[in-house]
Amino acid sequence: MGNHSTITDFLEGQVGLGKTSNKLIAEKSPYLLQHAFNPVAWLPWGEAAFVRAREEDKPVFLSIGYSTCHWCHVMARESFENDLVASLLNENFVCVKVDREERPDIDQLYMAAVQAMTGHGGWPLTLFLTPERKPFFGGTYFPLKQREGMIGFIDLLQAIDEGWRDRRHNLLESAEGVISHLKKSGEGLGDGAVDDQVFDKAYHRLTEEFDGVNGGFGKAPKFPRPALFNFLFRYRQVSGNEQALNMALFTLRKMAAGGMYDHVGGGFHRYAVDGQWRVPHFEKMLYDQAQLAISYLEAFQICQDPFYANVAQDILDYVLRELTGAEGGFYAAEDADSNESAVSEKHGEGLYYLWTDAEIDAVLGRELGEIFKYHYGVLPGGNVVDDHFKEFTGKNILYVAQPLAATAHRFQRPEDELAALLERARAQLFAVRRNRPRPHLDDKIITSWNGHMISALARAFQVLGEERYLQAAQKTAKFIQDNLYDCSQDLLFRRYRDHEAGVAAVLDDYAFLVNGLLDLYEASFDIDWLKLAERLTKTQLRIFEDKDGGGFFDTAADSVPLRMKADYDGAEPTGNSVAAANLLRLSRMIGNEQWLTYARQTIDSFSRSLNDYPTLLPQMLGTLILLRANPRQIVVAGTKGKADLEIILAMIRKRFLPDKTLLLADGAEGQAYLARGLAFMDGIDPRPKRARVYFCENFTCRLPVVELAELITRLDAMSHNRNCG
Predict the structure, then answer these.
(1) Strand, coil or helix: 434
(2) Are the C-beta atoms of residues 137 and 117 closer than 8 Å to each other?
(3) How big is the CA angle at 693 (ends 691 and 696), to the nearest 5 degrees?
(4) Can you tell me the distance from the alpha carbon of 560 to that of 6, in angstroms, rounded to the nearest whole number?
(5) Domain extents for the chain?
(6) How far apart are CA 608 and CA 613, in angstroms?
């Protein structure tokens, strides 16, 4: 981990200034602790807050955000640190703060309410509730005073207070209407089977939205959406449609060339505010890194172009360097904002990542500086194309302005020599940048996001063959097992921070962790990870299953006033999309036919959404593609660690084979465990003189393949790889 500022540093500073804390000081969430010294009398979400609201006959002011959210910081500075605002809030409302990353269940419900009321959403999420937790008014960011057509927050508070006193029945009717709307919108997501044409329909809609100049889908702002790459890669695999692959690869290249990618330190920022991927919101989220690493790894498997492997490695190395917890596990995020320098009080977005033309010259010297500036688009007056709030005047956000070949031609250098020079320049800038004040680090550990990371690391080991990635995946899984898992009840917690686990896990935690554990089994062949995945899936069924409508609720029965099911694979896939994939994979790993039925039912429970708007759930479509294919297991027989087996595994793993299930027959406990549900495992000789491969389809295996030439032929016929260089 780097020299970040943490919430502990912030708290010590506030105490040193003699400030008085509110009730949030007892919380573990960095976001809540950021507000622990506000003059607002915040309470954490809980029954006590709503009891007080009923006793005092006040509405509840609910503010939801997260610690690395730029506009959350802006509203905090403008309003929640303002004494006049605090007096209005404290006198007329019961004020509740929620960290959306700790409590996605609360965020989901009230985000849906705000979207229903206003047509849009975002963070900070701002709501007014009845003491029965029903929302009657909401929005996102409000400026302190009226600005650019937005009502000022002071005016809003006064209006809500007046309405509560004088027109309460109207507000209560509004609240009932919102809840009724949300209940109806959650009904009828599925009413039958998914159409056979749904894959083609999704593909054609994506072609209509595709930006053929800059990559991506739709217009600015542009968000990375790894679920789309997941679908396009799998759709191309079964359809042979090369344009599906081309759209995904082009977008991945454009993203990695843009300013949304950190060219000096690795990793991706949250999203781009412009259509060219050049101007990001600068926070870095763990879940983005993990999912995008997988997208680039899969692109590399398909193309064998080292460009994609290099980006994946840079992402993972950034996470291992900057987000690795001291006790194990991975931290949640790095903030967008920081101070400009150690001696400056200027605080703003992206300052850690920005460069002036003069700074580049001072670090690199004239000759190397000119090469670097040409390649990365650095201009004397700054290069930021979309600077609505004039935050980046005179500054440069690095992006690949010129291809390597063009830069080599411009400076009359061979490409390999130029690439080495640029690498040296990035290393020099990285060393200088390390001395700047770092953005705040959100040092909580989220189970679901660590599940993503386990998956990415396990997949990286399989594809790239670097043992350190497997070791990091195993260490993280062990950390979660030891600290966020109650083995006596097979229950997960969602959050770990400051030596404490807390908050009941939601569907995403179970689904994303199980996905990571399945990938970890295929990377390590440690049967204990498969056993844990099976136990957690049983718990998931017990807590979240919708026995009437199929699929899974996102929350437990006692979590929030209304249980919901997300139906959009956005920054992260929905819990149901990943749960369906897990159930399918597990059915093919352990032969559990009932879980195959659950996988089908989960997808069918979203049939209306899939049939009408298939691009809402591309991750689920990718699973449906695999579900409609014949079950295909690849069983390798041999001794782990021996060269002949490792060569075979490397040949299998380097190829994109999304419909495969990879199993090991080694005569040990793992093979016996698998044989309980897969009868063919009993008949496989675990210790042949030479390692061999069995290709099994519909739970029936062919004669083993021993010769490498035949194995290559078989694998090439299955993978449909191509040269994408």
Answers:
(1) coil
(2) yes
(3) 155
(4) 31
(5) 7-185, 353-435, 632-719
(6) 8
Cβ–Cβ contacts within 10 Å for residue 559, how many? 17
Q: Which residue has the higher pLDDT, 379 or 689?
A: 379
> Cα(first)–Cα(last) distance of the chain, in Å?
35
| Partners of 485 in the β-ladder | 492
Q: SS3 helix, strand, coil % of the chain, rounded to 5? A: 50, 15, 35
d(C-alpha 643, C-alpha 476), whole Å: 27
Q: Residue 674 and residue 634: Cα distance in Å, rounded? A: 13
Name 287's Cβ contacts closer than 8 Å, sequence gap at least 6: 448, 449, 452, 571, 572
pTM of model > 0.90? yes
Residue type, 439: P
Residue in 630, 635, 627, 626 with CA at minimum distance from that of residue 701: 635
For residue 158, what are its two tokens? 């006064």
Q: Which CATH architecture has domain 632-719?
A: 3-Layer(aba) Sandwich (3.40)
d(CA 231, CA 249): 13
Max Cα-Cα span within the chain? 86
Q: Check if the beta carbon of residue 198 is closer than 8 Å to that of residue 627.
A: no
Residue whose structure tokens are 């990718």: 622
Beta bridge partners of 60: 94, 129
Same fold, 7-185 and 632-719: yes
DSSP secondary structure code for residue 679 in this structure: G
Q: Is 221 helix (H, G, I), strand (E, B) or coil?
A: coil
CB 490 within 8 A of CB 536: yes
How many residues belong to the chain? 725
Question: Letter for the amino acid at 58?
Answer: K
Domain 7-185 class in CATH: alpha beta
Pairing, β 491-497 against β 445-446: antiparallel
Q: β-strand 125-129 against 135-139: which pairing, if any?
A: antiparallel
Strand segments (E) across 464-603: 485-486, 491-497, 500-504
Tokens 């989960």, residue?
602
The enclosing H or E element of 106 equals helix 104-118
Rounded Cα distance between 167 and 165, Å, is 6
Burial letters for 376-410: b for 16+ Cβ neighbours within 10 Å, e otherwise?
Answer: bbbeeebbbbeeeeeebeebbbbbbbeeeeebbee
Give 526-577 pLDDT, tens digit per residue.
999 999 999 999 999 999 999 999 999 999 998 788 999 999 999 999 999 9
Kindly give the residue spans of alpha helices, DSSP state H, lying in 210-277: 226-239, 242-257
pLDDT digits (tens, 9 = 90+) for 163-208: 999 999 999 999 999 999 998 887 767 778 999 999 999 999 999 9
Token code pair at residue 647: 């060569």
